[in-house]
Amino acid sequence: MDTTPIRKSHKLHNVCYDIRGPVLDHAKRLEEEGQRILKLNIGNPAPFGFEAPEEILQDVMRNLPTAQGYCDSKGLYSARKAIMQECQRREIPGVGIEDIYIGNGVSELIVMALQALLNDGDEVLIPAPDYPLWTAAANLAGGHAVHYRCDEQADWAPDLDDIRSKITAHTRAIVIINPNNPTGAVYPPEVLRELLEIARQHDLVVFSDEIYDKILYDDVAHVSTGALAGEDQLVVTMNGLSKSYRCAGFRSGWMILSGNIAKQRAADFIQGLTMLASMRLCANVPAQHAIQTALGGYQSINDLILPGGRLLAQRDITHEKLNAIPGVSCVKPKGALYAFPRLDPKVFNIQDDQQMVLDLLLQEKILLVQGTAFNWPEPDHVRIVTLPWADQLGDALDRFARFLSRYRQ
Ligand code: PLP
Fold first, then answer.
1. Rounded distance from Cα 211 to ligand 1 centre (Å)
2. What percentage of residues in the chain have a pLDDT greater than 90?
3. Which atom of ligand 1 is nearest to the CA of 252?
4. Could you tell me which residue ranges the Aminotransferase class I/classII large domain spans (predicted)?
5. Helix-strand-coil percent breakdown of the chain, rounded to 5?
6. Which atom of ligand 1 is nearest to 131's Cα?
7. What pLDDT score was predicted for residue 349?
8. I need a labelling partner for 354 at 20 to 30 A (CA). Which of 29, 111, 275, 290 fits?
9. How many C-beta neighbours within 10 Å does residue 12 have?
């Protein structure tokens, strides 16, 4: 019998996605043994009692009998029309039906877009910390993720000098995640304009991941990057139903191309995108029936983020409790579903943050994700999902504080 190991492809050598990494496997084993684990590791609203709006569910159920066939590779016409109208509301100019691609979540479209753009060795500027799928997808496509630092002292704004210093002849694109996962930062228009100016000077494609654009706290406004870009800049905006509409399991997201003059120049890239979209035939059709209703009319997410809203209360208690732990500091998240606190290295002795979250899991039965999983270079941050009820979060953070008191130098 041949015992030669069957190995994974070398294409996967620099690809990792540790949000669902080895520590989660450990948590699953503990659950199989009957232990209760509080999972604060994944931004999945449904298990925490956040239900999708009823009208969305009705749409999907009513349309199920007619959603049996494949649809156009870019998506249902009615759904794309609704996304086009959303672009008009968000002031992203010049977006037509053919500029919109619907995917099985933003995740599929991130992978697809980077596969279509990158040649071996091409570089993509990606924030640190990042949502790690961007880094994984750039590397999988044969490219090289180059991380630009976001500055915790400046509310996690992108460090523009760091970006400039990392641009080379190989840089093809820049990724902006706004509102940001994991930091909760929401970038003001001035910052976006500066990022766009850098991208324009160096002819970079701009990817703007805006999946949390409606999860905003404290009256902060979200401005779409595409609304500020000139016609000569190609902006690829990503958004979807998973977070604001609480139906991550439906796997429904979209990608929008804007910049009318740039699109002419990008015809070859766009043809590549269209071909990749057709290779996977189409996105899940039943879920596309939710898009028109989701985007139009009453936005139930507002009830969760305005004063008295559940998400706002949970953001507040997380922020408060974290900052009350000696040696821990947390910038107040202005959007999204996460907190990304700093654990002061002068206070805590953390050499390996994955080991630290594993120790936390074993000792306190709480699952977090270590900062380095978000391509943050030092082992001094963790990400906490702010989805559980406030009392559950309060209890979890008390346990985290107790755990950290043992981790002190
Ligand atoms: N982009 C960001 C910033 C995310 O946080 C996530 C999921 O957590 C995604 C994209 C993927 O979303 P989807 O469910 O649409 O694939």
1. 6
2. 92
3. 15
4. 37-386
5. 45, 15, 40
6. 3
7. 87
8. 111
9. 12
